[in-house]
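[Automated response] Your request has been received and processed.

Submitted sequence:
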Amino acid sequence: MIADTDSVLALEERISQLEHENKVLREREFSILKALPEIVFMLDANECCVFLNTTCIDKFKLTQVDLHEKVFLRDLLAQESVFYLRKLYIQNNNLEILHARNLMGKTKDGNNFPFTAYITKIVENGILKGFVGVGFDITEISNTEEKLKEANLAKMKFLSIIAHDLRNPFNSLVGFSTLLLSNFDNYSCEKVKEYIQHMSTAANQGYQLLENLLDWARANTRKIDFNPITINISQTTTEALGYLKAAASKKEIEILQYIPENIHAYADINMIKTVIRNLISNAIKFTARKGTIKLKAYSDEVYTTFEVVDNGTGIQPDKLKGIFSLSNDFKANGTEKEKGTGLGLILCYEFINLNNGLISAESSFGKGSTFRFQIPRLKK
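Generated structure:
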């Protein structure tokens, strides 16, 4: 009898010891769950929260008053997310772990956030006791995805514009060359010369567009050579003008240079030459016949500034904002129907950015525009 009593006492002591060890183990597990950087929550069968870790409490901006009272799933999720989650469980009742991808967290201060969660059921003796889940704030991922979508849409739109505008010079080349081949013997020398002039203009337009497109692609993939050196701005501008003088002369536009011989900058000469060429070309395009374009340059201790000032058509205020952006809709014909895509300005932004500089535009619609870039004067 005494032996049986001793056995019972030993068994009770062992059970008590196991319960204590189990309690310590559970407390340790909960301590780990509380410290996890992920959102961890446990719900009973009525969707009432029985455990929320520190990250969850902080993320949903819950107060001690909230925790003292009952917090339900509907308090943490937007209504549509609650419905979505319930529907998901009904449709996937046999899954051990459910992945809810599109949940919207509802915080106390109204700053909702997207998150994804992995949730599993707690079942004892075939009876549903609740749920336990681990969630992840995907705000940054969602923002990145949205930016990627916007960038891809902008690029598709941009390439569509480029493809459309490439047709114009090629249509001219094909059209005039076909006419010349078919009627060469019947055309006068003046007519032939006129058609050749049209073909030359179209070829130059197509070449400049393709050259800009290639430079833009290389700049965006960082496959373009970048060789900064000390450059003379006056000399670089003269070289950049090149055949643009003929385009200006054709429209009787006067180009005035106010660039001292001693103005220098530290940059990639080919990139800066391309920028200057594009800005002047743009000014010629939007300046009316017999207009004026002024080229200016000056330096301070840090930057060299270059300006292209015209008295052309100017840019409407709603178009001026984001004029250097790929997603901008800025596209207009010149004063004599010259075609344009806006690619030149985007390329200017890319190149000035690569040269650690800044580019900006000011305009008064109907009165003219000023395009300005600043690049380092000296090597850093």
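Summary generated for your ticket: The CA atoms of residues 251 and 289 lie 5 Å apart. The mean pLDDT is 81.
If you did not submit this request, please reply to this message.
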